[in-house]
Design goal:
106 residues, 5-stranded antiparallel beta sheet, 2 helices
């Protein structure tokens, strides 16, 4: 199985663009809509009118093979506390403690 995600930047009128990891531009826009609805309730049809999506720049190491708790995975991103990853063939990002993550040797 392979890495299915891509990085998309979604811009909503009045806000800066925000990156979303999704398998398609439409899926990224749906994620952005869910986020936006915590600010203001709008229909998806209305959200389409006030938003735009474009392919974003992938972070360093995006999609590389790793293991998480001994199981295969793909790297998505890292912050100061957790590593975001997806399992091969999946599109839902999960998080893990960095001590559970291992690099896969080439």
């Amino acid at each position: 199985m392979s890495f299915l995600l891509k990085r998309y930047d979604v811009t909503v009128a009045g806000f800066r663009s925000h990156p979303y990891d999704a398998h398609s531009p439409a899926a990224a826009r749906v994620q952005a809509w869910h986020s936006y609805c915590s600010y203001r309730q709008v229909s998806f049809k209305e959200f389409l009118k006030i938003s735009a999506v474009k392919r974003g720049a992938d972070p360093e190491g995006y999609g590389r093979q790793i293991t998480v708790s001994g199981e295969p995975a793909h790297f998505v991103s890292r912050d100061s506390q957790y590593v975001r990853f997806v399992r091969p063939g999946e599109t839902r990002a999960l998080i893990s403690h960095p001590l559970d993550v291992r690099e896969v040797s080439p």
